[in-house]
TrEMBL record:
Source species taxonomy: Bacteria, Pseudomonadati, Pseudomonadota, Alphaproteobacteria, Hyphomicrobiales
Protein name from the UniProt record: NAD(P)-dependent oxidoreductase
Ranges that cross the membrane: none
Domain 6-phosphogluconate dehydrogenase NADP-binding per the UniProt entry, residue ranges: 7-166
Keywords assigned by UniProt, alphabetized: NAD, Oxidoreductase
Pfam families xrefs: NAD_binding_11 (PF14833), NAD_binding_2 (PF03446)
Entry annotation: catalytic residues: 175
Signal peptide feature range: none
Length: 296
């Protein structure tokens, strides 16, 4: 792999901004970044980011570029669109996609980027925004062992659990299945809470007891106790519409493998109904509102 003397970051949103902040603070190399919004760029510039007005500006300044974007469509546009990374013909030789993107698209992008002499790596992240701020994300990487070894020190500025999952696309596989299981677990917790409340049991007590037994999980302790029990679903967390996107990616994988994932389909349907009911931007455990409103 070619030498790395500078870094880039594109996409400074809810997760991207704190991830980039950790990269800027902890990496010995200069970091150039850009985003459509000026506010995060101004905040990051104050701690040492070199701001760029365009994607091409980042591509001309950086050897390795990290992406944190809403979906695979934006990833493809940033890589191949007018004024994108490839069109810029800059110095960049490696792109690390930390977004959650379709596996098939990820592998296609890797082939297309390779034709332009650019290595494409998938490194999606798990855990909440606070973990992005603290630099304690779980990062799942797909790529060759050589490239993984080269980018790992930079990923370590953003996460504490960095796993090489296999070849290109493998990180995305692990990420979307992780999210699928979390969404399904939260669906089960929402149903259990609704049943418990209807039977006259306090929700906080129910989940506290469950956390001491075999039903314990991260989902119970975080979205369960911190969101479902107090019945609070803020818009600045992980919205229902994002959850729908991720579980659809998991179901696409299931279909490609001829797996009829009935439980995941049920959770997708519940999330879609939650969005249609007006909770698309709310934290996705808001699905309990529909469960409790549709008593038979």
């Amino acid at each position: 792999m070619k030498a790395i003397g500078s870094l880039g970051f594109i996409g400074l949103g809810v997760m991207g901004e704190p991830m980039c902040a950790n990269l800027v603070r902890k990496s010995p190399l200069p970091v150039t970044g850009t985003d459509l919004k000026r506010e995060p760029m101004e905040r990051l510039t104050a701690i040492g980011l070199k701001p760029a007005d365009t994607i091409a500006g980042v591509a001309r300044a950086a050897d390795v570029i990290f992406l944190s974007l809403p979906s695979g469509a934006q990833v493809e546009e940033v890589c191949f669109g007018l004024g994108g990374i490839v069109a810029a013909k800059g110095r960049v030789h490696t792109v690390v996609d930390m977004s959650t993107s379709p596996v098939k698209l990820t592998r296609e992008l890797a082939e297309r980027m390779a034709a332009h002499g650019i290595t494409f790596v998938d490194a999606p992240v798990a855990r909440m925004r606070q973990a992005a701020k603290d630099g304690t994300l779980s990062i799942m990487v797909g790529g060759t062992p050589e490239v993984f070894g080269a980018v790992r020190p930079f990923l370590a500025t953003m996460g504490t659990d960095i796993t090489h999952c296999g070849g290109i696309g493998s990180g995305q596989v692990v990420k979307v299945l992780n999210n699928m299981v979390v969404f399904m677990t939260v669906n089960a917790l929402a149903e259990a809470l609704a049943i418990g409340r209807a039977a006259g049991v306090d929700g906080a007590l129910l989940f506290d007891v469950m956390s001491k037994g075999s039903a314990d999980s991260f989902a119970l302790r975080t979205p369960g106790l911190k969101s479902l029990v107090p019945d609070t679903f803020p818009e600045q967390t992980f919205p229902t519409d994002y959850a729908i996107k991720d579980i659809k990616l998991a179901l696409e994988l299931a279909s490609e493998g001829s797996i009829d994932a009935q439980a995941a389909k049920h959770t997708r349907e519940m999330l879609e109904a939650t969005s249609k009911a007006g909770y698309g931007r709310a934290y996705y455990p808001a699905m309990i509102r529909l469960i409790e409103a549709t008593k038979v």
